[in-house]
């Protein structure tokens, strides 16, 4: 240890500071080259001899580097962006050389060269290529790698600097501005689920050791949090990550610590991102959490000393970076002081004189006996850290849920069936009393063997320490789990319907040698929980004191009962259970008597059942019965306000009922973030809508609620322009926002305002308090219009087409922080229309419009200014089939409904312009078309002539077969004016899985996007009106001239299917009358059958069970209902008449 180490400092200095701190503990002299005399590294180590004094200068100054080399035995770097040529020059003059080797530094400091090196060495890296700093080169890279695209600076990039995510080609110019004139390269976007890192140390003789893999979490492109060890259900991820990192470091020369950053994909694939040839931010945790820190091992490696152990010495640890949120240095000081009082924390401040936003000012290491306790200790720090927010705190350190499994449990409680729950719940209650995190699951050894295998083999890697397994009958679960995990397993024999549980006891006890299972008494979940606690005391000594206190409590309870028995005698001794409040006789056999303000209830009554079982029972009770139970006594009143009860009821509603957008957000949120009253209110509202939405509504024409046009709108245009209000299309989005496209304008109405919110003046445009007129854009003669939501469901896109121009408007759905504006919106895009073509659909993700003319479809890509034409099929004149509806199923699958057929187009080729792109594309007067590269699948309807169609949202699921296929399904409701209403489902099966967000119709080529294996078109249900008369069997038998059965009661004029495909409406005009009727129906879920047996009859054709919701009478033909839309989740219906009136039901 008599050698001197030279450190080539960086702009931050914290790595050199921690390296120098470790050197001081080993009496290793350190000489630091950095600007100034009081940098972070120079502050904590003073030279012991004049010849080891620090040097003031830049790490890029060649003269200063030579001066440093003359003072030391070995030279290392704090940052890789140094002059490698100068290091090569001085390397031969140093006794121990430069580490890592200058050749290694040169390779790594250019990230493109680093990637090529790793690729050639066989390391798993994503696709990449070099690009020039020009928009053209980046677009060419996007054509090859796809978007999103990661654009990176090749040099001088660290701490998130020099990276830019190009999510669409419109960001290319912005990327060039941000990255300036640096040399660039592009990487294919990697859809990772975790970012992981491994610190690898390499000695001078080539020996390799690695630290445990950790999870890194970034914020604003900076490392924010590090968790160790890496938690993952796949136990092999830890070792595979270390193997990838070690193999990569072996390809470089020189000694020291290398920080290896990697991506973990959903399928378990690991991609290497990049390598830093120095100690790394994600390895700071090693100072307190590992047997040898990365800084000490770096010194050992470059000095030729034996490497230290890299093992963790604590069960769980985390590192939180302290990053400046402003220039206020006091924020950092105050936070560091508050962190000192947190258990298990070590504060490291870097001694930087100036604070600024985004600058690393220090870090905190937290250690804990378990990952659950680690999060408990981390949460207060996240609540106070500068720049933090509550959402981030709840995401990374959530409050442990009550009544649900902990995310990071120490004990796993499993059972073979839900009937075992009463036996296993006492074990959970014991763990609750000791504050031990646990999970409770159903894992059947016989019915779900694969689930059991996965559970047992992943238990240790997920952090479990003990497993409690309960089983009855054959009771194989405890033994099978014990055979597949090294963790201790406690078996609980459950008493069954026969043999009183003795069979279960024998099955669990009689395990072969080598497979031990600790077995408790029959139905004794309490002892199982206590035994798990005693097992945990081996690693958690604080539990010993708690267990001793528990034993003393048991002793006190028994002695108190002994005293009472002595006082009253055994004849008068009673075992009673108290319940506050008054109680009704809810179950036969239960009785209650009032005694000094509380009730004594027999054990056979409902109130004797544990609250957990009551909540489980309530899950199968009608909601109005739960509300009724609430009124019976205070105990049930409090119990029925349990948040988990209403959350589970809401989730069960999701399986069979359409949920409003707000309720879907509740279901997707962690229960700990939700308010019980909000969940209950949503659940009851959904239940009431389900019961009441098909009830008849107001039918008097004069009493109907109309959407009255505000005067402000009518004054925006002249009288002549305002008079025609012919409706083109109606749509309701997110159960609230009505888009009404008219001949001369597009309007947006708020049908469901927040009644608790203050109505601002701009919302008060309408005289009807329940409705708000929000948006109005005058247009000149718009015969076609289509609207849709973006994928984030916060923007409505409206595409309106005239004979000359097609414009796309955006309406940003207002929030509390972004109120709506009533000003006329500037179009997002304006393009020339395709001559004599109808606008059918718009896909905002791919920026593609779909037009139709007769049987032809044209697609226009607004980003590339290219048009594709889909030709007419060979149907012949007798089967002429015009387009009536188009929907994008995915960016590469287009569903087209024609009058006599349904067709699906799968695009497989590139979509490149056959001509040079015109920068003045908005002035283009015509489009040059090219033939589409695609596959077409088709299903004919020879007996119908559809005139209108309504689509539900498309759904994408995995195929039941284990072939990796994807099934895309979409329901549509189409009407034949005379023959009635037809509900069909189209299902596509693709040979490989793919994302619905894949780019579409840009200058790209996707050979991996395959066409569907099959297209199935199923008639879900039908509402018959006039039916076709089959041809006569004998040639001399006359056939009616009309070809249809007589006496049909009317014709369909409009229909609408909800976006979730669970409800629909249609409008009929009665023949020979003045009646118009609106009908609603619930979609009956079809039960799939394994196959039809021989001799079994074909299933009967399902009928649409429509109910009349509203019947209107008017002699005026202008009152005919030609359009309809409805909110599937709330049941609100909007009808549009021939004269442009909007009616709300």
UniProtKB/TrEMBL annotation:
<dbReference type="InterPro" id="IPR036047">
    <property type="entry name" value="F-box-like_dom_sf"/>
</dbReference>
<dbReference type="InterPro" id="IPR054350">
    <property type="entry name" value="PurT/PurK_preATP-grasp"/>
</dbReference>
<comment type="similarity">
    <text>In the C-terminal section; belongs to the AIR carboxylase family. Class I subfamily.</text>
</comment>
<keyword id="KW-0658">Purine biosynthesis</keyword>
<dbReference type="Pfam" id="PF02222">
    <property type="entry name" value="ATP-grasp"/>
</dbReference>
<keyword id="KW-0547">Nucleotide-binding</keyword>
<dbReference type="InterPro" id="IPR011054">
    <property type="entry name" value="Rudment_hybrid_motif"/>
</dbReference>
<dbReference type="InterPro" id="IPR003135">
    <property type="entry name" value="ATP-grasp_carboxylate-amine"/>
</dbReference>
<dbReference type="InterPro" id="IPR040686">
    <property type="entry name" value="PurK_C"/>
</dbReference>
<keyword id="KW-0067">ATP-binding</keyword>
<dbReference type="Pfam" id="PF17769">
    <property type="entry name" value="PurK_C"/>
</dbReference>
<dbReference type="InterPro" id="IPR000031">
    <property type="entry name" value="PurE_dom"/>
</dbReference>
<keyword id="KW-0210">Decarboxylase</keyword>
<dbReference type="Pfam" id="PF00731">
    <property type="entry name" value="AIRC"/>
</dbReference>
<dbReference type="GO" id="GO:0006189">
    <property type="term" value="P:'de novo' IMP biosynthetic process"/>
</dbReference>
<feature type="domain" description="F-box">
    <location>
        <begin position="603"/>
        <end position="649"/>
    </location>
</feature>
<protein>
    <recommendedName>
        <fullName>Phosphoribosylaminoimidazole carboxylase</fullName>
        <ecNumber>4.1.1.21</ecNumber>
    </recommendedName>
</protein>
<feature type="domain" description="ATP-grasp">
    <location>
        <begin position="115"/>
        <end position="303"/>
    </location>
</feature>
<keyword id="KW-0456">Lyase</keyword>
<dbReference type="InterPro" id="IPR013815">
    <property type="entry name" value="ATP_grasp_subdomain_1"/>
</dbReference>
<dbReference type="Pfam" id="PF22660">
    <property type="entry name" value="RS_preATP-grasp-like"/>
</dbReference>
<comment type="pathway">
    <text>Purine metabolism; IMP biosynthesis via de novo pathway; 5-amino-1-(5-phospho-D-ribosyl)imidazole-4-carboxylate from 5-amino-1-(5-phospho-D-ribosyl)imidazole (carboxylase route): step 1/1.</text>
</comment>
<dbReference type="InterPro" id="IPR033747">
    <property type="entry name" value="PurE_ClassI"/>
</dbReference>
<dbReference type="GO" id="GO:0004638">
    <property type="term" value="F:phosphoribosylaminoimidazole carboxylase activity"/>
</dbReference>
<dbReference type="GO" id="GO:0046872">
    <property type="term" value="F:metal ion binding"/>
</dbReference>
<dbReference type="Pfam" id="PF12937">
    <property type="entry name" value="F-box-like"/>
</dbReference>
<dbReference type="InterPro" id="IPR011761">
    <property type="entry name" value="ATP-grasp"/>
</dbReference>
<dbReference type="GO" id="GO:0005524">
    <property type="term" value="F:ATP binding"/>
</dbReference>
<dbReference type="InterPro" id="IPR016185">
    <property type="entry name" value="PreATP-grasp_dom_sf"/>
</dbReference>
<dbReference type="InterPro" id="IPR005875">
    <property type="entry name" value="PurK"/>
</dbReference>
<dbReference type="InterPro" id="IPR001810">
    <property type="entry name" value="F-box_dom"/>
</dbReference>
């Amino acid at each position: 240890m008599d050698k001197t180490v030279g450190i080539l400092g960086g702009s931050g200095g914290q790595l050199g500071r921690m390296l120098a701190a470790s050197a001081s503990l080993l009496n290793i002299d350190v000489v630091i080259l950095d600007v100034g005399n009081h940098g972070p590294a120079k502050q904590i180590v003073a030279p012991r001899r004049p010849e080891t004094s620090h040097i003031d200068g830049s790490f890029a100054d060649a003269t200063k580097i030579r001066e440093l080399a003359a003072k030391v035995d070995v030279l290392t770097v704090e940052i890789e962006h140094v002059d490698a040529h100068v290091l090569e020059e001085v390397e031969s003059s140093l006794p121990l050389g430069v580490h890592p080797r200058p050749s290694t530094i040169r390779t790594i400091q250019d990230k493109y060269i680093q990637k090529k090196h790793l690729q050639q060495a066989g390391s798993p890296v994503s696709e990449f290529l070099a690009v020039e700093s020009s928009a053209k080169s980046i677009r060419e890279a996007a054509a090859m790698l796809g978007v999103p695209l990661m654009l990176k600076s090749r040099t001088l990039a660290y701490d998130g600097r020099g990276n830019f995510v190009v999510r669409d080609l419109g960001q290319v110019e912005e990327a060039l501005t941000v990255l300036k004139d640096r040399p660039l390269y592009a990487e294919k976007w990697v859809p990772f689920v975790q970012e992981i890192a491994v610190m690898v140390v390499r000695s001078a003789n080539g020996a390799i050791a690695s630290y445990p893999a950790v999870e890194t979490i970034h914020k604003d492109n900076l490392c924010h949090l590090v968790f160790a060890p890496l938690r993952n259900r796949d136990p092999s991820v830890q070792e595979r990550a270390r193997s990838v990192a070690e193999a990569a470091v072996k390809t470089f020369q020189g000694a020291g610590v290398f920080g290896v950053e990697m991506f973990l994909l959903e399928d378990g694939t690991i991609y290497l991102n990049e390598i830093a040839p120095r100690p790394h931010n994600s390895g700071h945790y090693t100072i307190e959490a590992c047997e040898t820190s990365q800084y000490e091992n770096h010194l050992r490696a470059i000095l030729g000393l034996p490497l230290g152990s890299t093992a963790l010495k604590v069960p769980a640890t985390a590192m939180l970076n302290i990053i400046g949120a402003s220039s206020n240095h006091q924020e950092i000081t105050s936070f560091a002081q508050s962190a000192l009082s947190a258990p298990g924390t070590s504060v490291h401040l870097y001694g930087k004189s100036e604070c600024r936003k985004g600058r690393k000012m220090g870090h905190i290491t937290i250690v804990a006996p378990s990952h659950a306790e680690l999060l408990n200790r981390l949460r207060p720090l996240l609540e106070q850290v500068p720049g933090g927010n509550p959402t981030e705190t709840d995401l990374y350190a959530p409050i442990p849920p009550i009544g649900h499994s902990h995310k990071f449990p120490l004990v796993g409680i499993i059972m073979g069936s839900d009937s075992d729950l009463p036996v296993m719940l006492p074990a959970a209650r014991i763990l609750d009393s000791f504050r031990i995190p646990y999970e409770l699951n159903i894992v059947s050894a016989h019915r779900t063997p694969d689930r059991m295998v996965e559970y047992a083999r992943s238990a240790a890697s997920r952090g479990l320490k003990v497993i409690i397994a309960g089983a009855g009958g054959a009771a194989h679960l405890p033994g099978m789990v014990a055979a597949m995990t090294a963790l201790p397993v406690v078996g609980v024999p459950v008493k069954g319907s026969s043999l009183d549980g003795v069979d279960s006891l024998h099955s669990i006890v009689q395990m072969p040698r080598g497979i031990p299972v600790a077995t408790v008494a029959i139905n004794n979940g309490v002892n199982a929980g206590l035994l798990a606690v005693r097992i945990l005391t081996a690693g958690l000594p604080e539990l010993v004191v708690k267990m001793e206190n528990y034993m003393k409590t048991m002793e006190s309870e028994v002695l108190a009962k002994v005293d009472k028995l002595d006082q009253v005698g055994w004849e008068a001794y009673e075992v009673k259970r108290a319940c506050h409040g008054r109680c009704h006789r809810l179950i036969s056999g239960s009785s209650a008597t009032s005694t000094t303000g509380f009730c004594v209830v027999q054990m056979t009554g409902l109130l004797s059942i544990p609250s957990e079982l009551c909540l489980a029972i309530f899950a199968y009770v009608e909601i109005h019965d739960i509300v009724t139970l609430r009124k019976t006594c205070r105990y049930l009143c409090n119990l029925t306000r349990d948040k988990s009860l209403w959350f589970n009821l809401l989730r069960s509603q999701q399986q069979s009922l359409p949920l409003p957008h707000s309720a879907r957000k509740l279901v997707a949120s962690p229960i700990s973030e939700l308010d019980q009253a909000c969940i209950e209110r949503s659940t009851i509202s959904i239940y009431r809508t389900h019961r009441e939405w098909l009830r008849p509504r107001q039918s008097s024409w004069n009493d109907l609620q109309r959407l009255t046009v505000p005067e402000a709108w009518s004054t925006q245009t002249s009288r002549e322009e305002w008079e025609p209000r012919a409706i083109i299309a109606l749509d309701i989005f997110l159960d609230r926002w009505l888009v009404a496209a008219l001949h001369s304008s597009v309007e947006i109405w708020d049908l469901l305002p927040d009644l608790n919110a203050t109505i601002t003046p701009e919302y008060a445009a309408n005289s009807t308090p329940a409705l708000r007129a929000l948006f109005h854009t005058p247009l000149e003669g718009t015969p076609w219009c289509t609207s849709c939501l973006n994928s984030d469901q916060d923007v409505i896109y409206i595409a309106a087409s005239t004979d000359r121009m097609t414009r796309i408007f955006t309406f940003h759905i207002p929030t509390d922080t972004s109120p709506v504006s009533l000003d006329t919106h500037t179009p997002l895009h304006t393009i020339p229309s395709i001559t004599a073509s109808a606008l059918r659909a718009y896909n905002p993700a791919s920026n593609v419009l779909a037009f139709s003319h007769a049987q032809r479809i044209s697609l226009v890509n607004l980003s590339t200014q290219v048009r594709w034409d889909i030709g007419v099929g060979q149907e012949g004149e007798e089967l002429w089939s015009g387009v009536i509806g188009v929907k994008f199923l995915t960016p590469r699958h287009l569903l087209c409904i024609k009058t006599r057929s349904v067709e699906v187009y799968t695009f497989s080729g590139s979509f490149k312009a056959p001509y040079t792109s015109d920068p003045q594309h908005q002035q283009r007067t015509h489009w040059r078309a090219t033939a589409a590269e695609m596959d077409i699948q088709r299903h004919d309807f020879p007996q119908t002539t559809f005139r209108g169609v309504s689509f539900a949202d498309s759904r994408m699921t995995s195929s039941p077969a284990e072939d990796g296929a994807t099934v895309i399904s979409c329901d549509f409701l189409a009407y034949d004016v005379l023959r009635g209403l037809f509900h069909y489902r189209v299902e596509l099966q693709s040979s490989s899985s793919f994302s619905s967000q894949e780019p579409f119709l840009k200058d790209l080529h996707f050979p991996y996007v395959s066409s569907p294996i099959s297209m199935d078109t199923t008639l879900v249900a039908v509402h018959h009106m006039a039916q076709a008369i089959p041809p006569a069997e004998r040639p001399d038998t006359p056939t009616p001239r009309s070809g249809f059965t007589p006496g049909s009661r009317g014709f369909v004029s409009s229909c609408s299917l909800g976006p979730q495909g669970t409800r629909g409406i249609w409008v009929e005009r009665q023949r020979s009358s003045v009646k118009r009727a609106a009908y609603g129906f619930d979609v009956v879920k079809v039960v799939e059958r394994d196959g039809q047996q021989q001799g079994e009859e074909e299933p009967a054709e399902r009928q649409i069970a429509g109910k009349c919701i509203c019947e209107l009478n008017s002699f005026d033909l202008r009152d005919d209902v030609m359009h309809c839309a409805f909110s599937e989740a709330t049941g609100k219906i909007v009808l549009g008449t021939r004269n442009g009136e909007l009616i709300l039901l």
